[in-house]
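Name: DUF1700 domain-containing protein
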Amino acid sequence: MIRDKYLQQLWDLLAPVPEPLRREWMFDYEEHFRQAGQEGSTEEEIAQELGDPRLIAKEMLLGYRVEQAVSKNGGITHVSRAVFAAVSLGFFNLIFILGPFIALLGVLLALWASSVAIGLSSLVAIYEGVFGEAFTKVQGIYVAITLIAVGMLLGAFSLWLTRVVSRVTLQYLKFNSRVIRVKIK
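Structure predicted for DUF1700 domain-containing protein:
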């Protein structure tokens, strides 16, 4: 009875994972119960030896989210999911992962917004050159070209920085995941 309850709880907690992978993981735990039972351990002893299914599920979800983010080339959405999976493992991760990650996301968002704003301000320069009195038509076009170029350069830098932040965050999450596994075992 303890075995069934333990495995069902673990199965339910791993709901975000695709079913084929979840079945593969669950097979390992079912096999552990079977082998330890053959060796004379009670279901209660086996469950205690394995540990809290909630903690196991959180660790497995972190590994899954990190691998998913790596396989998706570090997309910021997948990296964010991995960060939140890491945060669920404890207060330490809340402070040392989530805080800096949100700060970096704020910087990235500001850079992307600035890039778009500078690019769009070229329209104002063109309008001012054609209809306004601040620029001549030629000056308006040159200012617009300059603003578009600066916006594109800032956009390219923002893209590069986004990829770097994703890569570094994933590396840190992998390291953090290994440290947590070592500490738990």
